Amino acid sequence: MFKRISVFFYLILALSTSACAMPTGMSQAGSITAPSIDEASGLAVSRINDQILWVHNDSGDTARIFAIDTQGQQLATLNITGVKNTDWEDIASFVYEGESYLLIADVGDNQAKRSQYQLHLIKEPDLSLLNGQNNLSAQPVWSMTFTYPDGAHDCESVAVDSVKGKILLLTKRDTLPILYELPLMAPSVQSGSNNSPAQVMNKQAKRLGEIAPLPTAVLDYVSIYTWAGFAGKPTAMDISADGLSAVVLTYTHAFYFSRTQPGDWLSLFSTTPLEITLPAIKQAEAVGFSQDGQSIYITSEMIPAPLYKMDLNGAGTPQ
Predict the structure, then answer these.
(1) Which of 95, 123, 106, 101 is nearest to 56 (CA)?
(2) pLDDT digit string (tens) for the chain, length 319 residues
(3) Does residue 35 have a cis peptide bond before it, meaning omega lies within 30 degrees of 0?
(4) Whose CB has fewer CB within 10 Å in the chain, the N or C terminal residue?
(5) Sheet with 74-80, side-by-side order of all strands
(6) How far from each other are the two terminal CA atoms of the chain, in whole angstroms?
């Protein structure tokens, strides 16, 4: 009996050691250590500022996002006026009609009690024009209040397909993740300026369907996230600029879905993804494609938070 128990614990130790190994193609680019970024819950790579990422905290913070460099150093704070942070869970960056935007998703709902949710679209500031100013403010170009057709859902994964003009939402706590979409509304030139209020609209998300369970590994069965019921649950999502690839994050893995021709997202999420095992990381809840779509950045809540970069061309098993 003692021998069996010993073998079991050695197995757990071996699996834990494997989890700490760095997957082929992944490196730690830096760490987020700024006290103001203590619960990073969303990440987006800037489309107009080289080597800049945008991150935000989870619920409990004010309505603000942060510009950090690719080593994790905080460079600027952007306060979003006229809105509040109920439970911000994701952020997306994209170019639309030649302009760069950020979409902030106030969609978290752990208890599935909210009657409605919000999305906020802001024009991305060009940090090269700020002359060292590091405390900025912006007003949304538009804010969208939306509901689901089948009641409340907790969601932490939101992405923008600017090619098709769609906003995708993937739920977290349902038995099978459910994919929804909303229209990416064209920004108004007048709204969101300093002299006019942001455009506000109400929409209902369209249910596209359930997706297959995200793959799990043997390690997941000895993970605290399994015992908490969160193994394989989506915590973040992003879509590449060309609209051909998506990455979905869980607490233990990143899943890369790719295709060569445009198609519907529900079909893509039904295919077998490239599975990327994460190194030991606490509450991985933020992921974003690089500008060229050839790599992804991943970080987590709590500080110091490691900032990982994964080369998708070199993706493989742990070394």
Answers:
(1) 106
(2) 434 433 433 344 344 434 457 888 999 999 999 999 999 999 999 999 999 999 999 888 999 999 999 999 999 999 999 999 999 999 999 999 899 999 999 999 999 999 999 999 999 999 988 777 889 999 999 999 999 999 999 999 999 999 999 999 999 999 999 999 999 988 765 544 555 667 888 999 999 999 988 876 545 544 555 544 567 899 999 999 999 999 999 998 999 999 999 899 999 999 999 999 998 888 899 999 999 999 999 999 888 999 999 999 866 544 3
(3) no
(4) N
(5) 40-45, 52-57, 64-69, 74-80, 135-138
(6) 34
SS (H, E, C) the chain: CHHHHHHHHHHHHHHHHHHHCCECCEEEEEEECCCCCCEEEEEEECCCCCCEEEEEECCCCCCEEEEEECCCCEEEEEEECCCCCCCEEEEEEEEECCEEEEEEEECCCCCCCCCCEEEEEEECCCHHHCCCCCEEEECCCEEEEEECCCCCCCEEEEEEECCCCEEEEEECCCCCCEEEEEECCCCCCCCCCCCCCCEEEEEECEEEEECCCCCCCHHHHHCHHHHCCCCCCCCEEEECCCCCEEEEECCCEEEEEECCCCCCHHHHCCCCCEEEECCCCCCEEEEEECCCCCEEEEEEECCCEEEEEEEHHHCCCEC
User: Which residue type occupies 51?
Assistant: Q
Give the position of tokens 């080593």.
Answer: 71
pTM for the full predicted model: 0.88
Alpha-carbon distance of 37 to 305, in angstroms, equals: 9
